[in-house]
Design brief:
With 789 residues, the chain is α+β, with helices and mostly antiparallel strands. It is built from 24 helices and 23 strands. The strands form 4 sheets. Strands 14, 15, 16, 17, 18, 19, 20 and 21 form an 8-stranded mixed beta sheet that branches.
């Protein structure tokens, strides 16, 4: 048996060596299909399939919202939830915060690192073992930390750091442990600190906590939902958290977020490409079988049965498939790097992506399945030998048999149209998103961030004075046109709250039903960010800490509260224990959360009166001069402060289109690949049909048919197949539009113009692919063809 297989392999290699052009085209075609599928599957595997680095992954769940304590966050390190006894489905409960930036001092070098605060039971709950040292304990104070593996490797050289002390936000912090190389929760965390709200808290800024619970072995997620819903009714009725408490997800769902849909779209697209590639190679084998008719007939006449011929032809297909798989694996390495580079910055599980044993196994299995998929049918067709006709003519059959490969064209055209329409819809969505006015002018400005630790800048006058000096130095730099600071950049996030805006001289509203985005800004900010002042003025040198507090409101807020009247001079506040802010200006609306979301009501308060650090700097001017101005000014005032998050302001806008751009780029690339393969497939199918009908064409020309008649005959057959494929493809595109609906912006998944444009484009390419075989058929020499008989 093994001897026969070895002989088949040797014969297959000899046959392919005799036709290097055929082998090269087949291997390249399969390499593209297998490479694209392997690369996308490696991403899907890392994000959706691969086990998380947690001991009890299947038992870890997270409510959408959850209070750490009914009385709020505790003073000092948080250990346990005081209401955990009311939730018997849970063995443990813990929480972590979103990653917050901290200033880390390593010797004399300031470094910006991402820190997350966690409850003391966080590491035991998620089941993570330390690579070095230990996790937190009840005996620890707030000034301890667990390092992330990446920070430990890159900044500490992977040495013995347990027990050493570093400066974090100006406070001494003792390192008690180092997390494993595969652990990042939340993703991007460089170090973990005990969660606390006391005066010794190391991490500064706002915080949003996420709860994680370890279910008991005999508990179910449905039981957890029921217990949490009952808990919410008892303790949180009327609270904004009530609905979210019972919305329980697995920890994987929390980490993956909304990435499942785009990944499924890309995986479906690459599967379509592989089907098109398989049909192409199947047609190549059918075409090749026409030229090998005499050889197969001779082998059959010498006693080779049909099964033996099928085995040999299938072996040749598997050799091509394995070679294509090896090429695809090489392409997958390169493609994966491109995908990771193009993916949005917040795409989950980047560290887990790569080509490992699992992916190698997938590529190997895909190669074998692909070889069988495109090899069996041509082998069965090729082994169907008519000995009498074959020995006489060397052909395998008549044109009637060849007609059966028409479904290859129809299928390729239909699948290609589905991809073209999908890519077109995403491009339309991206273009419409780009046309949205964000409310500011990002071109010509850069942004950078600087954070002042309260350990070094404990009071507001010091912090306000530092920011005033910093901005003054930046503005004095040649090449800088304007500079200002704000607490949150537009299109990033905003410290907002549902609040009833109290207006002096008006009765208080019955309920707080307006979301108001709150910003603390410095003089010069509006000019630097390119946000127009439509009425009144912006903040200037008059708005010092000793002056009366002033505010600038957005145009939508002005219209909501004052209608056609001017709000200038009116006074507003959010609670009775706050000062009144006099409105001195009205600014244009700025989109806060994303380009697809309407701008919320917004109020800007002079940073000198808020106690909030406007640490997000915006500098307008020449890019190099602006960046140098920020770095030089900060270093001149305090060399221990790192300048971080330096980028063009336009990157803020680009980040909000990252997912749309990522999907559009990849799906359009896949659609063009499919179009190329489909064009080649149409050409190959019609070439096969012409080759198998040469005798018929010769007879037609002998009995008076003109070359244009034969040309038209072949073209009509090709166009009929293409038209049927387009019709089926339109139905497929309409059905698949539901999958894209969730990622499209201002474009219907049934957009008629996109369907029409994709169909016309595909028909044009298909007709071009039909012309060469049709022209070849019209130039058949009747005398030569008839002499063959």
């Amino acid at each position: 048996m093994f001897g026969r297989i070895g002989g088949d392999l040797r014969f297959a290699f000899r046959q392919l060596a005799r036709r290097p052009g055929f082998a090269t085209v087949a291997i390249l075609t399969l390499g593209l299909g297998i490479g694209a599928n392997t690369a996308i599957f490696s991403v899907v595997d890392a994000v959706l399939l691969r086990s998380l680095p947690f001991e009890h992954e299947d038992r870890l769940v997270s409510p959408a919202s959850m209070p750490l304590s009914l009385e709020g966050f505790p003073e000092g390190p948080a250990d346990a939830f005081e209401f955990a006894d009311e939730l018997p489905a849970f063995e443990r409960l813990a929480a972590w915060t979103r990653s917050n930036g901290v200033n880390l001092m390593l010797g004399t070098e300031p470094v910006r690192a991402e820190a997350s605060e966690v409850t003391l039971g966080f590491f035991p709950t998620v089941g993570v073992r330390m690579q070095e040292g230990r996790s937190f304990s009840a005996a620890d104070d707030t000034h301890v930390a667990v390092l992330g593996h990446r920070l430990w490797r890159d900044r500490f050289g992977g040495g013995d750091v347990v027990g050493s002390t570093v400066s974090v936000n100006g406070r001494p912090v003792t390192i008690v442990g180092v997390a494993g190389s595969d652990f990042e929760l939340p993703e991007g965390t460089d170090l973990w600190l005990p969660l606390s709200t006391g005066p010794d808290r190391v991490v500064e800024g706002t915080r949003s906590a996420t709860t994680v619970g370890l279910l008991r072995e005999d508990a179910t997620i449905e039981q957890a939902r029921a217990e949490l819903a009952l808990f919410a009714e008892r303790h949180l009725e009327g609270s904004w958290m009530q609905d979210g408490v019972s919305r329980v997800r697995t920890l994987r769902q929390v980490m993956v977020g909304d990435s499942r849909t785009p990944l499924m779209i890309l995986l479906a697209a690459t599967a379509l490409i592989l089907l098109i590639a398989c049909s192409n190679v199947a047609n190549l084998f059918l075409t090749r079988a026409v030229g090998r008719g005499h050889e197969l007939t001779v082998r059959a006449s010498l006693g080779a049965g049909r099964g033996r011929l099928v085995q040999q032809l299938t072996t040749e297909a598997l050799v091509i498939a394995v070679a294509g798989g090896l090429l695809g694996l090489v392409l997958a390495f390169w493609t994966l790097d491109v995908i990771v580079a193009a993916a949005p910055a917040d795409f989950p599980r980047f560290a887990a992506m790569g080509i490992d044993v699992r992916i190698l196994g997938f590529a190997a299995a895909l190669s074998v399945v692909t070889g069988l998929l495109f090899g069996i049918w041509p082998a069965l067709r090729g082994a169907r030998v008519d000995l009498a006709a074959g020995m006489k003519t060397g052909r395998l059959g008549s044109g009637s048999g060849a007609v059966r490969n028409g479904p290859l064209v129809v299928g390729q055209v239909a699948l290609t149209l589905v991809l073209l329409v999908g890519g077109g819809l995403l491009l339309q969505s991206l273009m419409r998103m780009r046309s949205v006015d964000p409310g500011f002018t990002p071109e010509g400005a850069i942004t950078a961030s600087v954070s002042l630790p309260r350990a070094d800048y404990p009071d507001e006058p010091m912090r306000d004075g530092f920011m005033a000096q910093l901005l003054e130095r930046i503005r004095a730099t040649p090449g800088v046109e304007a500079a200002g600071g704000v607490n949150f950049l537009p299109l990033s996030t905003a410290l907002g709250f549902s609040a009833a805006l109290q207006i002096d001289g008006r009765p208080d509203p019955d309920r707080p039903d307006d979301f108001v985005g709150f910003f603390a800004a410095t003089p010069g900010y509006f000019d630097a960010v390119g946000q127009p002042i439509v009425e009144g003025r912006s903040f200037d040198s008059r708005d010092v800490a000793e002056a009366a507090p002033v505010a600038v409101i957005s145009r939508s807020l002005a219209r909501r509260q004052w209608g056609d009247e001017s709000p200038l001079g009116a006074r507003v506040r959010f609670s009775e224990d706050e000062e009144w802010y006099t409105i001195v200006g009205v600014a244009g609306d700025v989109r806060t959360w994303g380009l697809a979301d309407a701008a919320p009501l917004q109020i800007y308060l002079s940073s000198n009166h808020t106690g909030v650090l406007p640490g997000r700097l915006v500098v307008r001017g020449a890019r190099a001069a602006s960046i140098a101005a920020v770095r030089g000014a900060v270093a001149g005032l305090d060399a221990s402060l790192p300048v971080h998050s330096v980028s063009p302001l336009s990157d803020v806008v680009r980040a909000r289109m990252a997912e749309q751009r990522f999907l559009a780029q990849l799906l359009t690339t896949f659609a063009l690949m499919a179009l190329t393969l489909a064009g080649a497939g149409i050409y190959g199918v019609l070439s096969y049909r012409v080759a198998s009908r040469r005798h018929e064409m010769g007879v037609r020309l002998t009995f008076g048919a003109r070359s244009t008649d034969v040309l038209g005959l072949v073209l009509r057959e090709g166009v009929r197949l293409v038209a049927l494929g387009v019709a089926i493809g339109i139905l497929g595109a309409l059905a698949s539009g539901r999958l894209l609906a969730g990622v499209l912006f201002d474009v219907a998944p049934t957009h008629p113009a996109t369907l029409l444009a994709a169909s016309v484009f595909l028909v044009g390419v298909s007709i071009a692919a039909c012309l060469a075989p049709a022209t070849r058929a019209s130039r058949v020499d009747p005398a030569v063809v008839l002499r063959e008989d």
